[in-house]
Amino acid sequence: METQSSIPFLLRISSIHVGILRSDFLYDHSMRITFMGYINGRMRGNVRIIFLCVVSVNFGVGRAAMVMFRREFGIVVMMDILEVACLILVTGAAGYIGSHTCVSLLEAGFDIVAIDNFANSKPEALSRVQEITGKTFSIHSVDMLDAKALDAVFAEENMEAVIHFAGLKAVGESVAQPLRYYENNLVSTINLCKSMKKHHVNKIVFSSSATVYGAQEQVPLREDMPIAPVNPYGQTKAMIEQILRDIAVADDQFGAALLRYFNPVGAHGSGRIGEDPQGIPNNLVPYVAQVAVGKRAELTVHGGDYDTPDGTGIRDYIHVMDLAEGHVKALSWVLNHTGAEAFNLGTGKGSSVLEVVHAFEQASGVRIPYHIGPRRPGDAARSFADPSKAQQVLGWRATKTLDDMCADTWKWQKQNPNGYGE
Ligand code: NAD
Ligand code: UFG
């Protein structure tokens, strides 16, 4: 079920209040005036807009009031314009995509609460997010398999929505350790959904993956194609998508954006945060970056006999900061909608392994030695997105090029040859 809303109309109203919010009174720091606009009902036809004035002495009270009124009256609008920021729980926040998304969320005016068990990440990533943005946030070192510890975070913080990155993600490892993958990814999500329900948090953005499409012959991949994952990792993503769809059917207040990422690469333009794989990288771009910096001797290209122009596999590489912006858009969408919807986050453009190698050589000025090896089991010849649904519904599209992705990866790798270190 969808609730109709008209953001431009509401923004016009909010801009009147921005003037009031910026009055001298606001800058008397002992008090804060917050105006909140709510729409209750449908925009076309029976429109009812209720303005509430909350006078509070600190942020915490303002936020609690906002959450309470939202539950009472319907959809909160004008989040980014309000002086009281909307608080978002980010699970797996210290990871590669989570840390970059935290930067985008903070820069978009959201407040965040970070959860991670640091199984595949370092706390340093979150320190650097704070350094880049100049903003602080609370960090909870919690394993989401521990339902009690997770629920305590919900009891302590007044979250409006969740972005759920936490999970194990290595395809090969999931084949070797299926139980560990099913337990970690599914149980942590079920614990999360139970706490969300208990604490009346009913909006979620979920990290799914293009891997749910399995080995499709047909490209570009569209969200309405049947999904058929071919490994335990992909199965966990498909199952979680289904769990969230089922919750949305049972609960008409629930909203979920299921984001199917293609191949995230690159780093923040500052070179302060980036991908920090443990051990030998599984993925192409981190491997190439480690060859360029001298940590690995040469790249093995997995197959040179595919039915593609240069014989190597084609993928849809997407800059991690474009992906991060996609989360901000998806969050704005989910805060105003109910139901569960899948969205491809990709560029719509495929690049071959050798094109990536050459673009990286160009960006780094370093030659990348490689040899062509056998195909990697389970690899498709080509995989790229039809990203038009995300553009039409979320108003998002990727803007960065393969050259940008290589330049930013190189900056990160050169400045941090050992990642975040010990
Ligand atoms: P990542 O491993 O860098 O980040 C995941 C984070 O989750 C890590 O910091 C890890 O410590 C944390 N985590 C794992 N299990 C946890 C648990 N039980 N409790 C608390 N924290 C836990 O991975 P990423 O590349 O940032 O990916 C983020 C999400 O996006 C994952 O769900 C992944 O499956 C998905 N995804 C990633 C890619 C990719 O190529 N990177 C592609 C498609 C989808
Ligand atoms: N490749 C090599 N040599 C390497 C690594 C990769 O030639 O050392 C090739 C692969 O064969 C493939 C391409 O580079 O043709 C990209 O491979 P990646 O491992 O970087 O990415 P995949 O498309 O195989 O998989 C990634 C994530 C999955 C996710 C999938 C879809 O690893 O988790 O994208 O989002 F499911």
Automatic annotation (TrEMBL):
<protein>
    <recommendedName>
        <fullName>UDP-glucose 4-epimerase</fullName>
        <ecNumber>5.1.3.2</ecNumber>
    </recommendedName>
</protein>
<feature type="transmembrane region" description="Helical">
    <location>
        <begin position="73"/>
        <end position="97"/>
    </location>
</feature>
<dbReference type="Pfam" id="PF16363">
    <property type="entry name" value="GDP_Man_Dehyd"/>
</dbReference>
<keyword id="KW-0413">Isomerase</keyword>
<dbReference type="InterPro" id="IPR005886">
    <property type="entry name" value="UDP_G4E"/>
</dbReference>
<feature type="domain" description="NAD(P)-binding">
    <location>
        <begin position="89"/>
        <end position="409"/>
    </location>
</feature>
<dbReference type="InterPro" id="IPR016040">
    <property type="entry name" value="NAD(P)-bd_dom"/>
</dbReference>
<dbReference type="GO" id="GO:0006012">
    <property type="term" value="P:galactose metabolic process"/>
</dbReference>
<keyword id="KW-0472">Membrane</keyword>
<dbReference type="GO" id="GO:0003978">
    <property type="term" value="F:UDP-glucose 4-epimerase activity"/>
</dbReference>
<feature type="transmembrane region" description="Helical">
    <location>
        <begin position="47"/>
        <end position="66"/>
    </location>
</feature>
<dbReference type="InterPro" id="IPR036291">
    <property type="entry name" value="NAD(P)-bd_dom_sf"/>
</dbReference>
<dbReference type="GO" id="GO:0005829">
    <property type="term" value="C:cytosol"/>
</dbReference>
<comment type="similarity">
    <text>Belongs to the NAD(P)-dependent epimerase/dehydratase family.</text>
</comment>
<keyword id="KW-0520">NAD</keyword>
<keyword id="KW-0812">Transmembrane</keyword>
<keyword id="KW-1133">Transmembrane helix</keyword>
